[in-house]
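Q: My collaborator sent me two sequences in one message, no labels, and asked for predicted structures for both. Can we handle them in order? The first one she listed is below.
A: Yes, handling them in the order given. First sequence, followed by its structure tokens:
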Amino acid sequence: MTLGPRQKAIVGSANKHAILAEFGPIRSNWTKGAWLLKRNQYRIDPCTRLDTDFDAGKTAVHRHLREYIASSAITHCMDGWAFLGRAMSAELQGDPDISRHLGYYAELRAAMALLAAEGIGVFDKHHVVVNNRSKCECFVGAGRTHAFTWDALECWANTSSAAQLLFGVIRPGGIPLKEWLDQFSSGAGMQGILAEEWLLQWGLDIQRLRADRDARNFASYRPTAFTSPGASSISDSLALAQGLWHLCEPIGSERFAALDRHLLRSSLEKAFRATHASGRTHKQASHSFKQRIARMLHGLAPIGLGADQWREFLRYEDGESQSEILTYASGTADERDRDHSRQVLARAMLLLRVATGASAALLESLPNLNRAEMQFWWSRLGSERGLWNDGNPPATFTDMWADVLDGMIAVADWLSKVPAQERSRARFWKERPAAASVLGACERVGFWGLGL
């Protein structure tokens, strides 16, 4: 089922400013050690409560629903990183069916986090949009959770709000992607085209995501012995893990330094071809492309790399090819292909990057926010997931990169010492168990990505 004109209009009326405004009251809840206080009528079982209220013809408690939707943006986002970590562990263990199943749910949670940050609450049969009057408008007939999520995202991807979010939260060199493209003279219309193309490519189009849901169902409801394509090699799985973590490395104030640089380079290639008079690619008209790169860099002062390094990277003169993660994310393999699980994980990671940016923006709207205010939440989560010992969290969450770096070095060392023909999952897990554990704990990315 797709959204009808009236349903699209309701989704289009979502008011993200009302969600931002809700974080003042939510902040006061944190002093009492909770996201939502016991008085919130939707705190425990919102779907049942909405069903009951709707069937009885009751009006929603707008303040409580707004509070729930706003809080769910950040908590859905963190749950998404947790699902991605478990999916990565399954991939490393040679279980692609479980990997794509959990990867799908990482995508779903990322999508729900994005929608919540925009003022759209996904529940079960009844969904909620916080409208321009800051009222919660409930409606039915738009499908259950999975179908509505993708339909709403497809609708949202074609809005100016999607472009504003995407090109605001992706910050190569600490500069919003919008400013890079403005300097590149891509035009405002090009940004909207790019935003929609990326969101669709990363899995937000209904056709692709419904296909991924079918793949999830194969793992959930059918004997995998009948349908599984089998596991890829341990070398391929480790390459995926290394590629994903490399893109998520926090460097200084940049939360996704390498990933945002790769997204910048990809966007410039697309913008150049779309705006070039003859539609030539950056390779076919390399001189013109290099001139525009030079003019763009002259008007900016990005951090992270030196001027020559930025120029060489954006021109592909540094020898670094397109990230394997971006290649996987654009793949079209189905559930019977061994590459499919890795493609799902890549799309989930990219969507989570955007959701994390949207959630971080909500927190950044709070003046003088200190992570101690949210300790009731993150302290328990980190210790229960084994990210640190009880009562001994890292001084800053980016310090957790040291654990990841140790794991990456251990993996690289193992790959260098063990010949390809002698590599096996059993040997890797026996000889590098600590590295395997770290590479499957993506909650770390959620913590530093949210800027806490």
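Q: And the one she listed second?
A: Here it is, processed independently of the first:
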Amino acid sequence: MPSKTFAVQVTTRASRQAVTLQPDGLLKVKLTSAPVDGRANAELIKLLANYFNTAKSNVEIIKGLTGRKKLVTIHSIKNPK
């Protein structure tokens, strides 16, 4: 399966998790954790792996580890939920 790269805009400390694909290809992701000690990035990887039905090891944050805007590559995408 080919890999796909997405621009991701993250909102932390949300009341619930959500993934929304915008018409321009931007993924808006709401996370419940705070951006402390990499917890938000770990939650993002887990949530995107679940959303794209792939293993966490197939999700890679390429850019923006400390920012709200990130560039994420998903390897081996099966069927998104």
